[in-house]
User: Fold these one by one.
Assistant:
Number 1:
Amino acid sequence: MANLAKKELIMREMEHIPEPLFNEILDFIYFLKTKALKEKLETAIASESSLKKNWLREEEDNAWQDL
């Protein structure tokens, strides 16, 4: 299912949700956004530590010295 179709489905479902649940839904959306951001950050940190091994090599310095 395409992203647009999923978004439209979510919007249609929201029309049938009782208004008192809106705060819970909004909290869940914020939770999912925070979770995704945290996972991205963890991936970036993990990548940095593995790539750092190459960055600190003399061969790497030589390869970039003319730029």
Number 2:
Amino acid sequence: MFVYNVKVNGSKIFKYFFIGTVIVVIIIVAIVSFRIFKGANLSNKSSSCLPTDNVSKLSASNYSNVLKSVHENIDDYIGVKINFTGYVYRVLDLNENQFVLARDMIISSDFQSVIVGFLCETDEAKNFENNTWIEITGEITKGDYHGDMPIIKVTQIKKVDKPNEEFVYPPDESYIPTSGLL
């Protein structure tokens, strides 16, 4: 029979635990800082989202990247012509000739979504009811709606069927949701 005598030094265990915890926290802060700065650098390269010469077609796969980039860098996109599909969405304080051409963006694994979109202006706005799916072509301008806002001046508008890909997803891995639903 063997007997082992183990002496535990509580202060040494606490020191090692504390040092290990500090190292883990430093690593986490470094990773988060890198991702934040990497995302900030990517958003400054806005010219890669839309060309500035022809009409650019937005799809479900690039919709939220373009939306984010245009909202963050309005001045870089003034005059760019875009074409995309969405549904008419109105809030109470919009003018009679305005609506949001919206899409539902999935923000969680249980398919919770938020409405995202571009504010559009056209004299034909009153001809389309809420939740009507339409396709528009228009030019990005800078306007004012609770601050600087990109506004699409619609040049062509037509009613369409709901697309197969009606949902869009957050932009890239650098997207930080602001919704409290997560």
Number 3:
Amino acid sequence: MSQEPSGIFDMLGPIMIGPSSSHTAGVVRIGRVAHFLLGGPPEEARILFYNSFAMTYKGHGSDKAVIAGLMGFAVDDERIRDAISIAESTGLHYAFEPVISSAKNHPNTLVIYVKRGDQELTIEGISRGGGLILISSIDELHTNFTGQLPTLIVRAQDVRGAVAFLAAILTYDGVNIATLTVSRRAKDDMALQVYELDEPLREASLAYIRHLPWVRAVHLLPPV
């Protein structure tokens, strides 16, 4: 479910560094999602800019923006201008690839492949304008979250009652679920559960979820 701008400041766009909210601020935020999921900046990154992005990413600074996001910089961080040189100084290896493809429905689509240690991750994001984003997939599993709310991401075995069990934990913590997306490749395979929350859950509850035998990985993303 998409979200419309909620107020005058959303319509005007964010306070940011760069010439375009969709090509700069939104791209920073997509990169930040990858940063938080990896637990820090990647060592390697391959970034595919699709369609409109493919034609404008250099001129609008989207190349600097995505690297800044991967480094964890906020949209108003003045270091965005120098993000590429800063990343290179830290040893980040990166590549940009422009792609024109009818397979992507939105003109401002970005696919990021990143690696940090033994972790590898693929994220597809859409920059919707005004700095708003939609993360449409993680590791080619469907998602549908905006990065505007605390977001709980759980990789778990596709066991019966898993969603209800986790929802009960959130209820016990007094945490309301704004949106929920569940995706899997096949029955009894690994599933990806994404909960956008009105407030973050307790660290003790996160630790409990991490130790469930059918859970493989848990991340709580702050608003990006």
Number 4:
Amino acid sequence: MPGRTRRQYRKWALAHFFYDLVRRTPLNAPTSEIEERLAAGAPDVEVLLVEVVSGDTLRLFIDHPEGITFEHCAQVTALLSEYSATYSIEVSSPGEDRPLTKPQHFSRFLGHRAKLRLREARDGHKSLTGELVGASEQEVTIAAGEGVVSIPYELIDRSNLVPGD
């Protein structure tokens, strides 16, 4: 504990423990299974993001052309009832900071500000925030403080709109 009091160290350790506890993990394997199940049972509901939080919570962000209602969330929860043996299920609307997970999401929000968190540092940065200026099936182009940068989707760990735009 050099340079820290016992109290400062405990506070630091506790903060890092909780950070590790709530770290989000994208759920890759069952995502397509969940999307297929919802396509059959709730065809107008789009799955934006599926992730496991704290190891035992399955969190889904969903969208609907007319907005998300409580009934949509209840319907999705019911369709995923078999996951409730393993996970606590949270279903939510995307909100202002909606996740961007598919090429069509990036295309839909061209001209809006977004934050991209990368899997590994690129030119010394693991995070970029700027205006979405292009999106293809392979990459997104963002005008950030570093200039106009194209990032392949497979290098993006997480991305979302920046509220206020």
